[in-house]
Amino acid sequence: MNSKQRVMAAMNHRMPDRVPVMCQLALGHYFLHCDYSPSEIWFDSQTFANALVALRRRYGFDGILVNLPGRPPNWKSNLKSYQKTINAEHLRWKSGLETIVPPDDNPQTYRPGQKPLARADCKSVDIHDPATHRLSGYVWNTWHAPELWDIDPQADLSNPKTYPAWFTDALKKVQQLAPDVSVHAEVFSPFTHLMELFGYEQALIALIDEADKCHKLLSAFTQNVVAQIKLYVGCEPDAILVSSAFAGAGFISRQMYQEFVMAYEDEIFRVIREAGLKSYVHTCGAIGDRLDLMSETCVDGIDTLDPPPLGTVDLAEAKSRYGERFFFKGNLDAVNEMLNADDKTFEQAVKDRIRIGKPGSGYILSSACSVAPHVKPERLKRLTELAERFGKYCQ
User: Fold this and answer.
1) Which tens digits make up the pLDDT trace of 106-118?
2) How many CB atoms are located within 10 Å of the residue 100 CB?
3) C-alpha torsion sign, points 202, 286, 373, 319
4) What is the pLDDT of residues 208-248, one digit of tens each?
5) Which of 143, 161, 162, 352 could disulfide-link 155, Cβ–Cβ 3.0 to 4.6 Å?
């Protein structure tokens, strides 16, 4: 059984030969452990694909999440200057923006003078006027690019034809390089788009003070995400992850989750299901109080499942209550059991998750959230070794 078949079996609650392993790595981890410059990994589709495949091979993972959209092949034509220092790369763009790329963390883009990027104003934003919401801060935090390269600022983002051909390049290049591996695409939840549009503090206030406007924006963002899904569907990924990091109890209540998240995400899950693909959702932190609400949507799987103290999910309890409803991916504490733990603590945590998640299939061994940049590569290789030793199913 190859990696693609192994992950697909787990997502469908069929018995694979062993528990599959698939961690999402922080981009800083690629920066530190690949032989490419961080800016090339971030801004060049082919280099990004090469990095994803190289570390998947190094660690023996069964799947790859392509968590950045493609970039234009001529992206460097937008550069005004480039400078590399000991601590960072500095990219200055013809638009006047500047991106600083550290060696072990996500890049950040600034206005001249390293001023924060502009966010929308919840009082004056008008969904019918792109000038009020297609701002540099929103674009950077959803496309992770300084600008909407090759897209008319007034264009309808709910129309798949609006997007340039290179939008799916990273996904296609990974599929070409790793045909036997489970390759997944990623889109952002409408709620994440709302949070990035206003910035977190203003967005949380807007949920209370401007609820009607938030619903209108969420409806529009849903259609934009659907358009992106349709593009990815044409590439036939093995699954699509909906990143909804800010929908946990650390940000919003259960009631707000019901009002501002569920229906919009469910529409996206339905589109993915109708396309014949698997969907799963990535929500960080405390989600133990809303697993039942998630089960009312069409999503097939749940990612992260942060355990205490980072979150509130006990894998045994979740498996008992929802193990037939969802496939689960994650639950290894990315900080206390992976980054900071000694070898004994790490290995016991991995064996515990395999023991709990393995019965009946439907489990993918993974860190709960992204693997931190400074987690040792040997530890990640050990994940797969432990899965091969303790995660085998009787055929």
Assistant:
1) 999 999 999 999 9
2) 17
3) negative
4) 999 999 999 999 999 999 999 999 999 999 999 999 999 99
5) 162
Residue 336 Cα distances to 369, 371, 385, angstroms: 12, 12, 20
- Copy the structure tokens of residue 271: 């589109």
Spans of all domains in the chain: 3-72+122-390
Measure the CA–CA gap between 299 and 48, rounded to whole angstroms.
28
Domain 3-72+122-390 architecture: Alpha-Beta Barrel (3.20)
**Residue 238 · residue 184 · CB < 8 Å:** yes
d(CA 313, CA 183): 26
9-23 pLDDT, tens per residue?
Answer: 999 999 999 999 999
If phi > 0 it is left, if psi is from -120 to 50 it is alpha, else beta; for residue 236 that is: left
Residue pair 139/119 in contact (Cβ under 8 Å)? The answer is no
Cβ neighbors of 384 (< 8 A, separation 6 or more) are 21, 59, 60, 61
| Contact predicate 95/147, CB 8 Å | yes
Encoded amino acid at 250, one letter? G
How far apart (Å, rounded) are the C-alpha atoms in residues 380 and 91? Answer: 32
Q: Are 136 and 117 in contact (CB under 8 A)?
A: yes
Helices in the chain by DSSP H: which ranges? 3-11, 27-33, 38-43, 45-59, 136-143, 169-177, 190-198, 200-209, 211-233, 254-257, 263-274, 291-294, 315-322, 343-357, 377-390
Which positions ≥6 away from 203 have C-beta within 8 Å? 122, 194, 195, 197
193 to each of 187, 197, 243, how far by Cα in Å?
Answer: 10, 6, 10
SS3 assignment, position 362: coil
Token pair 């008319």 in the structure block, residue: 152
Cα(55)–Cα(6) distance, integer angstroms:
19
CA 7, CA 50: separation in Å to the nearest integer?
A: 21
Q: How far is CA 229 from CA 97, 240, 393, in A?
A: 29, 8, 34
d(CA 194, CA 211): 12
Quick check: 279 and 239 in contact, CB under 8 A? yes
- pTM greater than 0.90: yes
Among 187, 258, 255, 263, which Cα is nearest to 219's? 263
What span, in angstroms and rounded, lies between the C-alpha atoms of 144 and 106?
9
Enumerate the β-bridge partners of residue 82: 91
